[in-house]
Amino acid sequence: MSARGLTALTSEIVACRACPRLVAWREAVAREKRAAFRDEDYWGRPVPGFGDPDARLLLVGLAPAAHGGNRTGRVFTGDRSGDFLFASLHRTGFANRPESVRSGDGLELIDAYVAAAVRCAPPANKPTTQERDTCLPFLVRELELLRRVRVIVALGAFGYEAVWTVLGRTGLAGIDRPPRRPRFAHGLEVACGAITIVGAFHPSQQNTFTGRLTPEMLDGVFERARHLISASNSLMP
After folding, report:
1. Which domains does the chain have, with CATH numbers?
2. CA 223 and chain centroid, separation
3. pTM
4. What is the model's pLDDT at position 172?
5. pLDDT tens-digit profile of 97-119?
């Protein structure tokens, strides 16, 4: 049931044209391309989530990269952020291989699902609050379909704010969001009943090249997520 629902939702996401600024930008990038990818056909559409329909771990990032997900059609695929992320997921047992360069390249997520708060590549990698709020119903529906999720790793403050908002909008049993939102931090844990939010710095080059986020730090987040999953009670149907 979850797999069929996610497939139907994917079709809706891919067809979305709700935000004129994002539509114009993603399509312009797909036409103009980066020189290194000039011989490739860019995706140039909204990028759906992907992974295991029975996942107990959900990762939420910011938005597709202009020449990453907007090119390949899969979030965190084909850019440096994805290289860093998938390597960590592989080391911690949530992916079958350490890298992904294109959709259909054999990468499979194990007990994990990856999505973004905003599904279109935004100019300067900065979606507006209105664009985020327009896109959030997709994430609400994903969470409702991913009924086994027990841990949500929010990649960056933008993803964290999106996750916090989404947990307030779902009709899922067992969700008990605290009245105040704790300030985002790497390694932050917020218990929300059946689900725990865990914060992690986003694996952007701004963080990974400066050492603000190291492989060991991200591995630690996913190892902690696995522990929380193992320790969780089955509070949701």
Report:
1. 2-231 (3.40.470.10)
2. 18
3. 0.95
4. 83
5. 999 999 889 999 999 999 999 99
